[in-house]
Amino acid sequence: MDKVLECYLQETRKYLKRIPEPGRTDIIKEIESEIYELQNAGRTPGEITNRLGNPKDLAKAYITGLLEEEKGFSFKKFMAVCAFYSAAGLSGMFIIPILGIIAPVFIAMGAVIPVLAFIKMADYIFNIGIPYMENVKVVLNGAEEANPVAGFLIAVVIGILLYLTGKGAWKLLVLYCKKTANIKRSISA
Amino acid sequence: MNVDGWKSQIKRGTLEFCIMLMISKRPHYGYEIINKLDTWAVLSAKESTIYPLLRRLLKEGYLSSFWQETTEGLPPRKYYSVTEKGSSYLKAMEYEWNNLLTAVNGIREV
C-alpha cells in the first residue's frame, strides 16, 4: 500500500484510541479494505484521503456514534459525569466570577479613563476651574505628574488597552461557558 | 434560498432506512453500499457517514457482520446482514415511513 495511505491508517488508529479492542482493529481493517476498493477503482492516494476526510474527523465520526449508543447507566459514564462536575464546578468557581468582573469593569474603565483625562485636559487648556480636577492625574515614574495633554494621550492608549482586555475577558467567558455546555452535552447524550 | 440544511436533516434518518432496506435484500459490504447510494445524488454519502452508521446498527444488534475473502485478489470484505431484531426494526421503520408519506400527501391535498 502507498506510504501516504499507510500513514493515514496509522493516524486514524491513533485517534480511535477511545474505542476498545477488538473494535478498533476491526474499524481499521474495514477502512483499509475500503481503501483497497477505491484503489482498485483507479483512485489516486490523494483522491482517497480527500474522500475519507482527515483522520481526526473520521475517528470523531466513530466516537460520536459510540457516545450516542452509551445511553443508560454505566459506571464509566457515571465517573465521567462526576469528573465533569468536579472540574466544571471548581474551575467555574474562579473563572466565571473573575472573568465576569474583569469584563464589564475593564470595558467601562476603558471608556471612563479617557473621558476623565479629556475633561482634565479641557480644564487645563481653557482654565475652567472644574472642581476636583486636581484628583485626576496621570502619574509617571511613581511621582511625576504628566502634562494634562500628554496625560490625555496616555489615557487614551490605556483606555484602549483596558477595553481590549475587557473584551478579551468577555470572549473567554463566553467561550468557557460554551465549551462547558458542549462537554456536558456530549457526556449526557 | 438554501435547502441544504433541510436536506441533511431528512437525509439523516432516510439513510438509515435505505441502508437497512438494501442489506435486507442480501448481505452487502461498505464500499458496495456507498456506491449504490451514490447512484442517487440525494442519498450519496461519504465513508465518514456510512461506516460509523453501520457500526452503530451493528452495536444495536440490527445488523451482524462477517468477513469474506474476495476472488479478485483484494483483502477480505466485511459484509453486513440483517438480524432478526433488525428485520423487525426495518418493519417498524417501513410502517412509520408509510405513515409519514400518507401524512405529507394528506396535507398536500388539503
Helix-strand blueprint:
The complex is a heterodimer of chains A (189) and B (110).
Chain A: H1 3-15, H2 23-40, H3 45-52, H4 55-69, H5 75-126, E1 139-140, E2 144-145, H6 148-188
Antiparallel strand pairs in A: 1-2
Helix pairs in contact in A: 1-2, 1-4, 5-6
Chain B: H1 4-25, E1 28-29, H2 30-38, H3 47-59, E2 63-68, E3 77-82, H4 84-109
Antiparallel strand pairs in B: 1-3, 2-3
Helix pairs in contact in B: 1-4, 2-3
The total strand number of chain A stands at 2
Low-confidence stretches of chain B: none
**Strand percent estimate of chain B:** 5-15%
How many helices of chain A in DSSP terms? Answer: 6
Adjacency order of strands in the biggest sheet of chain A: 1-2
Summarize the structure.
The complex is a heterodimer of chains A (189) and B (110). Chain A has helices at 3-15, 23-40, 45-52, 55-69, 75-126, 148-188, and strands spanning 139-140, 144-145.
Structural notes for this entry:
The complex is a heterodimer of chains A (189) and B (110). Chain A has helices spanning 3-15, 23-40, 45-52, 55-69, 75-126, 148-188, and strands spanning 139-140, 144-145. Chain A is mainly α. A two-stranded antiparallel ribbon of chain A has the order 1-2. The mean pLDDT of chain A is 86. Chain B is of the alpha+beta class. Chain B is 64% helix and 13% strand. Chain B contains 4 helices and 3 strands. Chain B has helices at 4-25, 30-38, 47-59, 84-109; strands spanning 28-29, 63-68, 77-82. A 3-stranded antiparallel sheet of chain B has the order 1-3-2. In chain B, strand 2 (63-68) and strand 3 form a beta hairpin. In chain B, 21% of the residues are buried. The model of chain B has no long low-confidence stretch (mean pLDDT 92). The A-B interface holds A 26-27, 29-34, 36-38, 40, 51-53, 57-58, 61-62, 64-66, 68-69 and B 29-31, 46-49, 51-53, 55-56, 59-60, 67, 72, 74-78.
